[in-house]
Amino acid sequence: MKRVSGEEDSVILAEIRKLRNEHTEAANDNKEALERLDNVFKNGGKNSLRVVNAEERLGDTEDRKARLERSVAFLLHQEAKLAAKCDDLESRSRRNNVRIHGIPEDSEKNDTIGFISGFIRSSLQIPAEVDIRIERAHRSLLAKPKENTAPPRAIIVRFLDYRVKEQVIQQAWKQKTTYEGRTIYFNQDYTNEVQKKRKQVRDVIKKLKDKNVKAQSPYPAQLKVFLASGTKIFTTLTEAAPMLRDMGIHVQEEERDELQRLRTQSSWTMVTRQKDKRSQPHPQGQTHMPSLNKLTVMITMYKLEREVKILSWFAYDNRFKPNLGDQNFKEWETKGITAMCTVTKNGSMMSFVDLKEKYGLENSDFFRYLQLRDYFIKEIQTKTSNGVIDILIRTYNRTRLKATSALHKNKRDSRATSTVYINKKWVKELSIEITTEEWLNMCQSLQTTRTQGLGESLGGKTSLDSS
């Protein structure tokens, strides 16, 4: 065998040392990359924990917000009822009162009742047999005007007999009444709230008059409009706002009234208003279900159009045709059978025997059960379960609270656990290409390095015999 010369040995050893150095540098680079990757995993774990905590807090906040919104809607609804009742009681207490405007200050001297009685007798055409009995009479409780040019305060008169008061005010409206050359006006003694509303209505009536539209303001502050198509009466200006807007008249709604209207009509009274409509009723007691908008987003995101039918009330579901001619399905509500999820268990239809035992169904309901089971199998049942639907079912059945938090957690847990994102970041930082096989091997190497302490061997030097 031909012997290799010493010069050739030196060349080979130099190449080996060069390869060893390259291997060492590559191992060091690999170790540094793995350390960075390890830091990425650690930071990812911390960030994941922070996201979980944030999602839980967000879910709790949304649940609390929903409860507070319902509470505010209820309180506004109650406040509106109490305010209306108080205003009605105050108005009733003023039914015998009349406000007289235009009488100069100090005309009544120290006898307001006697002055008003004489003024009514002398100014109005009241029959002599009518007994004008006045209980009290005084100026309004405003500050007395210091200047003579200021309008005098109104005189509030309370009659003992309501019929006499009506006779006096009706006669005053029919004829022109004056005192010392001044025109005197008789008005009802409205509450402050009614006066404010009537003033708003009068402003609208003036605008309608400018458009040659006749209008009146019946008590307390209604709007009666005489149109070519007929007469329309609106209880409030808010109710008349759409029609007025079409006529070019803008109605300014106070912020408080707008808030009260929106809260009460959208969150509290809507269930009552829709009670008699043919629609799926509001499930009583399901106070922890997510909002309709949130459910719609989730159904679209997870493509659950088929699965979500399990939450529908089959007695009101137009897709379930047997309910159209059989009212017994609606009577099942009294037994506790409402949505499809109340007759299913673990993704399958419960047996008729179980339903009889749980809900007290009769043998005559067996054919209806078969109809319902056929609809469930064809339209709703799926081969695999879905975490989102399971959470909604448990929430609907009140076996779980804080559905929003659970849905956030399910969304997080259902995300793919692939490290593609980290792979892309690493490729970008190192400016190299990594195949799928190489990446899997690298992840396995990282796990082995972290568990068995092989990381140090990657940077170890190889002992070579230079002799």
Describe it.
The chain is 54% helix and 9% strand. The protein has helices at 6-93, 112-123, 162-174, 192-210, 237-246, 255-268, 270-273, 292-302, 322-325, 328-331, 352-359, 366-379, 387-396, 403-413, 420-430, 436-452, 455-458, and strands at residues 97-101, 134-139, 155-159, 177-179, 182-188, 214-216, 223-227, 230-234, 344-345, 348-349. A hairpin with a 2-residue loop joins strand 7 and strand 8 (230-234). The longest helix is centred in the N-terminal third of the chain and has 88 residues, at 6-93. The protein is elongated, with a radius of gyration of 42 Å.
Overall mean pLDDT: 77
Gross morphology is: elongated
Task: Tell me the strand percentage band.
Answer: 5-15%
| Number of separate helices | 17
How do the strands of the widest beta sheet line up side by side?
Answer: 2-3-1-5-4
**Main beta sheet: strand number and arrangement?**
5 strands, antiparallel
**Class inferred from helices and paired strands:** alpha+beta
**Topology pattern, helix = H, strand = E:** HEHEEHEEHEEEHHHHHHEEHHHHHHH
Q: State the end-to-end CA separation.
A: 20 Å
Region (Disordered): 270-290
Coiled coil: 16-71
Keywords: Coiled coil
Biased composition (Polar residues): 281-290
